[in-house]
Amino acid sequence: MSKQNHNNHPDSSILKQFSEEERAAIQEVWEHSGDAAGNLPGVSPSEIEEALNDVHTRLEMSGEFLSPGDKIVGWIQRHHRILVAAVALIAITSLFLFVPKTATVPYGEIATLEMPDGTTIEMNSGTTILYSRLYPYTNRHMELNGEAFFTVEEHSNPFIVEANGSIIEVTGTRFNIRSWSDEPGLKTSVTVSDGQVLFYPAQDRSGYRILQANESSFWNIEMDRPAEPEAAAADDILAWREHRFVFQNQTILSILRDLERRYDVEIELAVPEVAFSTLTAYYSQNVHIETILEDICTVKGLRFTETANGYRIFD
Questions:
Q1: Is residue 68 part of a domain?
Q2: CA–CA gap between residue 43 and residue 37 (Å, rounded)
C-alpha cells in the first residue's frame, strides 16, 4: 500500500479553535504523525484532521480546555436543578425566619406565654402577640394588640413592645399594657409594677416618658407624647389577672368589648348615643355577665335581651 502524503501543517481552520499553547502541541504531534503515517495503512490526512477535531470536541465537552468562566457556566448548566432547589430552600428558610410567630388567646380564656429568655407574658382574653422566630438572638421586639402583663428578664437586647402606634421599651421589669385596636383613639395604657419603662409614640422617640414602679401613663393618636405619669391603682388595673372586672370611668363601648372577650359572646349596642358615656364599677370573680349588663342598663336607663349569639342592649 502506498505511503500517504503528509503536509507539514494541519489545516488552519482547525488550529484557530485552539489556544497558542495548544497549537504548538498539535503542530508537534502533527509532525510526528508524518513518520507514523506510513505505518497506518489507509489513514488519510483528512481522516487524521477529523480525528483531531473530534478530540478537541470531546475535550470541550469534558471542560478540559474551558476558561474558568466557561467552566463555571458549564457546571451551573449541569447542576442547575440542584442550584434551583438550593436557592428555593434558602428563600423559603429566609421567609420562614422573617415571618413572625403569633400567639393568640381565645375569647373566654387567659393564658401565659413563656419566652426563650425566661420572660413570661400573661395575656388577657382575645389578646394577640407577634414576635420574631429569632427571639431573643437578634432582638426582643414584639407587637401587641390586647392586654398583657410582662415579667421581663434582663438581657443584652432591650425588650420592646409596639402597641398600636406606641413603643414601650425596657431592659428588665414588670409592667402591664392595655392597647386594643378597637379602643377609641387607639388608646394605650401602661402601668409599671417594678423597675422602669420608657414610653413614647412610635414616630417620635423624643416625646418619651419614663415610668417608675407604681406609676401609670397613657397615649392615643391625638397626643404628641404620653400623659404625665401618675400614681397607679395597681390592684384595680391588674384585676383582670384574677378574673375580676374594675371599670374606672371607662366608656360603655369599651366595657362591652371587654365583656365580649371575657365571656366569648356578641353584644349589640342599639343605642349608639351612649357608647362614649362612662361608667365606674367593681366586680369580683365569677360574676355572671347578665349581672353586669343589668347594672349598665339600670344606670343608663336601658334594657337588654338575650340573642342567639349573645345580647342586645336597647332603650
A1: no
A2: 7
Cell of 226: 404620653
Among the three residues 220, 242, 264, which one is the final residue of a domain in this structure?
242
Question: Which residue, 4, 9, 60, is CA-closest to 37?
Answer: 4
Which long-range contacts link 297-304 to residues 24+ away (Cβ below 8 Å)?
Answer: 300/252, 300/271, 300/274, 302/271, 302/274
Per-residue pLDDT reduced to its tens digit, 199-250: 999 999 999 999 999 999 999 999 999 999 999 998 999 999 999 999 999 9
Examine residue 95 and state whether it is found in any structural domain, yes or no. no
The 3-class secondary structure across 234-285, one letter per residue, is HHHHCHHHHCCEEEEEEEHHHHHHHHHHHHCCEEEECCHHHCCCEEEEEECC
The total number of residues written for the chain in this structure: 315
What pLDDT, in 10s, does the model give residues 101-160? 999 999 999 999 999 999 999 999 999 999 998 898 888 999 999 999 999 999 989 999
CATH code where residue 313 lies: 3.55.50.30
Cell of 136: 431573643
CA distance 300 to 100: 43
Give the domain range for residue 315.
244-315
The SS3 of residue 224 is: coil
**d(C-alpha 117, C-alpha 280), whole Å:** 39
